[in-house]
Structure formats: structure tokens, C-alpha cells
Amino acid sequence: MAAVAGTMQAVSAGDHVVVADDLYGGSYRLFSKVLPRYGVRFSYVDATRPEEVAKAIEPATRMVWIESPTNPLLRLVDIAACAEIARRHGALLVVDNTFATPFLQNPLALGAHVTLHSTTKYIGGHSDVIGGAIVLDDEELFARLKFAQNATGGVPGPWDAWLTLRGVKTLAVRMRQHERSAERVARHLRGRQEVARVHWPGFDDHPGHEIARRQMRGFGGMVTIDLHGGAPAARAFSEALSLFSLGESLGGVESLVGYPWLMSHAAFPPEEKLRKGITEATVRLSVGLEDADDLCADLDEALAVARAAS
Ligand SMILES: Cc1ncc(COP(=O)(O)O)c(C=O)c1O
């Protein structure tokens, strides 16, 4: 979040920001509860339709903020199309690349001005350090953000920096395995009667599949599902898993299960969550590096518990 807040130092009172509405709840918290007090205005749009981004641009728009794939529904936003719109209007395009990682997607090469990562996730990779990174290739903007970073104190300690460097060295091998196991898990869950829907961009019929093929080098390690049986099923399922620990983070070697309704997306009002497609039956899986057969067996056992609870 220090990287998110640091990036926002690029805007000032009176400026307007267009934000993709399917975004991390913590970023939304900052944009909706903190920055408006400093006179920055935000408009939220469905950025899976770039024409909506274009429509929301105002003369005061200085930034467009997107994630892709999005958290938690793994929707795809066309980065090159958003970059073209932002550049045409003299605005910065910022891409939160936390889910994809630089191994799978390079937004700067697609025209973005700023790429941002929560390094807490795949880049650190071991769920033992919290941090963030801003990546850009513009000297003038770099100088402004670096000055703001120093002025506001979003600076990692040396031990945290060391842990992050240790993690990033294995990013490529971890991502290959995360992806292989996520595909296995996604296909396995798609065949289960307790699961109403599996969100995974690798499926041919995923609405963003073609964009993913175009702008990513793989589909990542996250799988989100909607269960039949509502909140009781989702709760029972999350608690019954034993290889997937219940936790808000993602991207570590150990598998995690998250419940966006009450955890990562708690900052959104219920009607907003429902409008986006996040329900009380939505469960997010960060597929770790454990044996994929063991993960599928664990999921099957928890689905049986969910069925009994619903
Ligand atoms: C997409 C995304 N961006 C930013 C963050 C914030 O990261 P951190 O917890 O490292 O502050 C998160 C955390 O879940 C995230 O999922």
C-alpha cells in the first residue's frame, strides 16, 4: 500500500483519476476514504470495456488506474487500449501488476507509464515480508515519485529488502509451477457439482481469454470460484481446507484461501460487491507449490463439507 500511496503522489488537489472498479479493496479504501480529503476526485468504471474508460475522462483527468487480471474475479483489462486512451488525453496509465508479476506481463512494454507490485505476494513469494515496488521508465516522473517517497517515508528496511531479493531470484520457477497447478485445480473444480463457477483466464470461454493470450505469457496462479450454497457453504469450505490456509494474502509458496466478501474486499459496500460479481459464495484460491494431487484431494474433502453445510 506504500507503493500505491506513493504512486498517488503523482496527482494533486483538483486532479481527477479514472479507476477500474474491479480492484483491490485496500486501494479502493485509499481512493474512497483518504485521498478525497486532499481534493482528488475518482470515477470508477468497468475497464474491461475500454470505451468506458474513454467516456470517463475529463479535462482534469491526470491518471487512469487499472489492475489486470483483477482481484478477485480475474477479469482482463486490455492494457494497450487503456494506455492509448490515457496517452491521448495526457494522463498517466498505472497498472497494478501484482497478480500477473513481471514474469507473465510487462505493462510498460504495452504502453503503461507506471507498473506497481505488492512484493508481499509473488515477488517475495514466501509470505514472510511486506513491501511494494513502483516500476517506471520516465526520469522526470521517477524523480518526482522518489522525492515523494523520501518525503513520506514509504521505505523498506534492509532485512525486508533482503528477503524480497531472495524471493525474486526464484520468481520464474515458482510462477511456472503456480501456473501449472492452478490450471490443474481450475479444471478439477470445474467438474465438481458444488462449484457454480470457476474464474480462471486460461479457459477458452473466459471473457478475457483472448486478451490474456495477447498481453500475458501465461494465466497465473490464482483461481476464484463461486460455490453453490451461499455463505454457509463458502465458510464451511474455507475452514475445512487443510493445505490451503485461510489468509488474506496470496502468491506465496503455501496455498491460501481467501474470502473476499469479508477479507480483501471488506472495504466495498455489499451492493458494490454484488454489482461487481463478488458474492458471499465467492472464494479465492492462491494455488501454492504443494503437490497438485494433494491440493485437489484437499479441495474435494472441503467441497464435501461445504455440501453438507449448505
Ligand atoms: C492487487 C493488489 N495490490 C496491492 C495490494 C496491497 O499489498 P500489501 O498488502 O503488500 O500492502 C494487494 C494486497 O492484497 C493486492 O492484492
Write the layout of secondary structure elements.
Blueprint: H1 2-7, E1 16-20, H2 25-34, E2 41-45, H3 50-56, E3 61-67, H4 79-88, E4 92-96, H5 101-104, E5 114-118, E6 132-136, H6 139-152, H7 158-168, H8 171-190, E7 195-199, H9 209-215, E8 222-227, H10 230-240, E9 245-246, E10 256-258, H11 270-276, E11 282-286, H12 292-309
Parallel strand pairs: 1-2, 1-3, 3-4, 4-5, 9-10
Antiparallel strand pairs: 5-6, 7-8, 8-11, 10-11
Helix pairs in contact: 8-12, 10-12
The chain binds pyridoxal-5'-phosphate.
Pyridoxal-5'-phosphate binds next to loops.
**Major sheet size, sense and barrel closure:** 6 strands, mixed
The structure class reads alpha/beta
Shape: globular
Low-confidence stretches: none
Whole-angstrom Rg: 19 Å
Strand content: 15-25%
Mean pLDDT: 97
Instruction: Work out the number of β strands.
Output: 11
The distinct bound ligands, ions and cofactors come out as: pyridoxal-5'-phosphate
Instruction: State the end-to-end CA separation.
Output: 36 Å
Count the helices. How many? 12
Percent helix among the residues? 40-55%
Listing every helix as H and every strand as E from the N terminus to the C terminus, the arrangement reads: HEHEHEHEHEEHHHEHEHEEHEH
Q: For the largest beta sheet, what order do the strands appear in spatially?
A: 2-1-3-4-5-6
Description of the molecule:
The chain is an alpha/beta fold. Helices cover 40% and strands 17% of the residues. It contains twelve helices and eleven strands. It has a six-stranded mixed sheet, sandwiched between helices. It has a five-stranded mixed sheet with strand order 7-8-11-10-9. It is globular. The two termini are 36 Å apart. The mean pLDDT is 97. Pyridoxal-5'-phosphate (PLP) binds next to loops. Pyridoxal-5'-phosphate binds at residues 1, 4, 24, 26, 67, 71, 96, 98, 118, 120, 130, 132, 264.
